[in-house]
Every structure is written in structure tokens, then in C-alpha cells.
């Protein structure tokens, strides 16, 4: 065998595509399957494939088509109907075009059209190696992400469904003070969970759950949230999720208004983890992080100019998180003061080599003059209110202003972690609830107790 050469020009000549006549395609199928999978991975593995919600028009929908995000008829893509004050609208899903991200970052799915063999091999990589996430996007509400996920899965062929291994989903709520799944219980969330359980061979699931979960530290469970718009009616989503078990990895994030005992949220997280994750019952309250975070509002457009600006609100919310695998390992960062949700604009620009003093002066000028032209695609925390009319001794107001990211670029005040007590978060199983839930599954009756 010839000895390797150190001549870089020889190496370049060896791998040069000049060896292939320009009219001849690269013989991909002549490569071993292991190498083909590597090629597919470079083309399609992006860790997360974002599938967004979009309003679409259908034969039954009337109005200005330009207002809708999608141009796909119902017969080509599963759509669902939503009744609003403005009338009936149809919504569906679409894969996010990654906005301002570079075009090369978008997965190259055109290879699916080559032939059946390549489609079969490439789809196994695409569906099996990516996480499909369904966040809020566009003019729609986050509440539609569950329906978008269900529509997306229903349109996959059975072989592709069996290859999907990882999903990330938001269970949205109209208010952090409401009970969980106030808009999504029963007719929306339960059918999706049942579809996942019956049709998918899922390994990893990530859930972001907004609102107050039921009080599970005593039986029967108390389903009331923390505001005046709550219902004490038992919700079916808990029973449905409890039957979605044998997961190899589970991530749970609860977000709720800080009016109540956070241990109640921890108890619900412990219960769901014990039911859904392999060996999850052995973890107890281990690997659960809890803290308070400032709320934030995202602005897609300011003065009719596109931007990506986040403004901080004074209100805080409870955040309870756990992310574990079936071996009991926590996949969260080590428990410490958590990092801010979004990096500061000052830190981002300094990392790119800009002078810190010039950056701070430019940001102050932009903030004071409300000149957002320089801020497209830059995520920035800034005070939501003007500084006029504030008292100097108003600690909360000055704290909010410092959190704007100038005097406190590290965002130290945005997250407050707190300790958890094992004995204060022990859940009690509500057997009556699950008896009624099983009865509902068999007869279709409402899931009510008492």
C-alpha cells in the first residue's frame, strides 16, 4: 500500500470533482449504506425541525386570501377549523423557513424525490434524527400548536410515523393563572396523545405546560387554578398523558402565575414523570429545578418595521423543569443560577468585537429615541415602559430599568431559584379520577368525579 503523502496539492487532486465528468451525477448508491447515511445527515439533520401554525384558505372559507399564511387546500393538507369573533378560519401547519437564518441551514428535502430507495433511506434519517417542535408563530395563537402537531402527524405515511422519535410541544393557556389545558382538554389534546401512543414509537418527548396543574398532594385532586375564570371540572389530559409511557427521555416545563405553592407544580411534575418515563417513579423529586422568571413579550413588528424584540414585564412566573433519561440521569445543566432566557444585545455585539462603550451608547440612544431600525433580528431585553414619572426610591421600577441590559448586561435579576423540599411535593394517586377516565374511554362519557 502506498504511503500517505504530505503534499496538500496531491490530497486536493485526489478528492477533486474534476475526476467526474460534469454531465455524470455522483454515484451515491455506489457508496456503502453507512456513508450514504452520513451524506443524508449533512443534508437533513438540524436537531430541531420547526413546524409552525398558519391560517390557510379552503373552499368553504371566504375573505381576502392575502391575509392567510398558507396557500394549501384542505384536500392536500389536513386543516382544522377555528371559530373566532371575526368568523370561521382554517389553520394548518407548515415547516418553518427559518426566517432570517442562512438558507443552507434549511434541510434539503429535495433528495426525497430522487427514487424510492433514496427516499426510504433519507426519510429514516430525517424523521429519526431530528426533533419536531411545534411552537407559536405568525398571527396564530400558541394554542393552535397542538392541532398543528396532530395535523402534521396525520399527514405522514405510516412508515414515516414509525420513524419519528422526538417531539416538542406547547400546551398553551390563555393565562398563567388558569388551570392547565383550559383551551385544549378533551376534543384537542386527548386525541393527539392517543394518536402518538397508538401510531408512533416515540423515544423522547418535551412538553411545555402553561397554567396551574391540579393539586395532587391529596385525593381527590383539586383542579382549580388561581384566577376567577377557572373550573373545578376534572381534565382528561392528565389521564391521557399518564397512558403515554415507556419513554426513554422526558422533558417537562411548567409555567404558572406565582400565586400559590410551587410545590403543587412539583408534585404534578413528579407524577407525570413517574408515569411517562421508564423508571421515572424511582426519581422522587430529584433533578427538578424551580425558579421565578420575568415574563417577556415578543414584538414581531414595531412601527410597521420587522423586528425581533423582547420587552420585559415586571410580573414573574413560576418555572418548574425536569429533563431525565430512563437511567435516572438529568439532562438539565447542573443546578445553579440559571442563564437568562435570551442573551443581551450588548453581550452579543461585544462578542462580535465591537467596543463595549460604543455599543452601550448606541443602545441607549436607540432605546431613548425608540429607533428600532438597527435592531432587526436582534433579541433584546428592554424596559416596556418609559422612565418618566418614576420615583427614585421605587425599587421595582429602577430594578426593571437596570434589567434593560445596560447596567446589568448579565441579567442577574431575571431569575430567582428556590429550594425544594422532598416531603412537600409527594403526590397521591386519585383512583376515582382514573376510574372515571377509563369509563370515559369505553363509553365516551364526560370525565367527571363526585
Automatic annotation (TrEMBL):
UniProt region (Disordered), positions on chain: 386-408
Classification via InterPro entries: AN11006-like, DUF7730
Secretion signal, residue range per the UniProt entry: none
Domain DUF7730 residues, every copy: 29-139
Matching PANTHER family: F-BOX DOMAIN-CONTAINING PROTEIN
Protein name: DUF7730 domain-containing protein
Source species of the chain: Botryosphaeria dothidea
Amino acid at each position: 500500500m502506498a504511503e500517505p503523502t504530505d503534499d496538500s496539492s496531491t490530497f486536493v487532486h485526489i478528492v477533486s470533482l474534476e475526476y467526474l465528468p460534469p454531465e455524470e451525477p455522483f454515484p451515491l448508491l455506489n457508496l456503502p449504506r453507512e456513508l450514504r447515511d452520513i451524506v443524508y445527515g449533512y443534508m437533513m439533520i438540524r436537531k430541531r425541525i420547526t413546524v409552525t401554525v398558519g391560517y390557510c384558505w379552503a373552499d368553504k372559507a371566504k375573505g381576502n386570501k392575502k391575509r392567510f399564511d398558507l396557500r394549501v387546500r384542505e384536500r392536500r393538507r389536513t386543516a382544522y377549523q377555528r371559530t373566532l369573533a371575526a368568523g370561521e378560519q382554517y389553520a394548518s401547519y407548515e415547516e418553518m423557513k427559518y426566517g432570517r437564518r442562512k438558507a443552507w441551514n434549511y434541510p434539503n428535502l429535495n433528495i426525497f424525490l430522487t427514487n424510492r430507495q433514496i427516499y426510504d433511506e433519507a426519510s429514516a434519517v430525517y424523521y429519526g434524527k431530528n426533533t419536531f417542535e411545534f411552537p407559536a408563530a405568525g398571527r396564530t395563537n400558541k394554542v393552535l400548536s397542538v392541532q398543528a402537531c396532530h395535523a402534521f402527524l396525520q399527514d405522514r405515511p405510516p412508515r414515516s410515523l414509525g420513524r419519528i422519535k422526538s417531539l416538542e410541544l406547547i400546551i398553551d393557556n390563555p393565562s398563567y393563572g388558569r388551570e392547565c389545558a383550559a383551551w385544549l382538554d378533551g376534543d384537542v389534546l386527548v386525541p393527539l396523545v392517543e394518536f402518538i401512543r397508538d401510531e408512533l414509537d416515540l423515544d423522547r418527548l418535551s412538553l411545555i405546560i402553561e397554567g396551574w396543574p391540579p393539586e395532587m398532594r391529596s385525593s381527590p385532586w383539586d383542579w382549580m387554578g388561581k384566577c376567577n375564570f377557572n373550573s373545578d371540572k376534572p381534565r382528561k389530559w392528565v389521564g391521557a398523558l399518564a397512558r403515554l409511557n415507556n419513554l426513554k427521555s422526558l422533558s417537562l416545563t411548567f409555567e404558572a402565575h406565582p400565586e400559590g405553592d410551587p410545590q403543587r407544580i412539583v408534585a404534578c411534575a413528579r407524577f407525570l414523570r413517574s408515569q411517562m418515563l421508564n423508571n421515572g417513579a424511582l426519581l422522587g423529586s430529584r433533578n427538578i429545578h424551580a425558579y421565578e422568571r420575568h415574563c417577556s413579550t415578543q414584538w414581531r413588528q414595531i412601527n410597521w418595521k420587522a423586528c425581533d424584540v423582547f420587552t420585559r414585564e415586571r410580573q414573574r412566573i413560576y418555572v418548574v423543569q425536569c429533563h431525565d433519561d430512563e437511567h435516572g440521569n438529568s439532562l438539565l445543566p447542573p443546578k445553579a443560577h440559571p442563564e437568562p432566557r435570551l442573551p443581551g444585545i450588548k453581550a452579543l455585539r461585544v462578542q462580535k468585537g465591537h467596543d463595549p462603550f460604543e455599543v452601550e451608547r448606541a443602545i441607549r440612544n436607540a432605546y431613548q429615541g425608540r429607533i428600532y431600525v438597527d435592531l432587526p433580528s436582534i433579541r433584546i431585553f428592554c424596559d416596556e415602559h418609559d422612565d418618566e414619572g418614576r420615583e427614585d426610591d421605587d425599587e421595582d421600577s429602577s430594578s426593571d430599568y437596570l434589567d434593560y441590559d445596560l447596567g446589568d448586561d448579565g441579567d442577574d435579576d431575571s431569575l430567582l431559584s428556590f429550594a425544594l423540599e422532598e416531603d412537600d411535593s409527594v403526590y397521591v394517586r386519585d383512583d376515582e379520577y382514573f376510574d372515571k377516565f377509563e369509563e370515559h374511554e369505553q363509553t365516551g362519557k364526560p370525565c367527571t368525579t363526585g
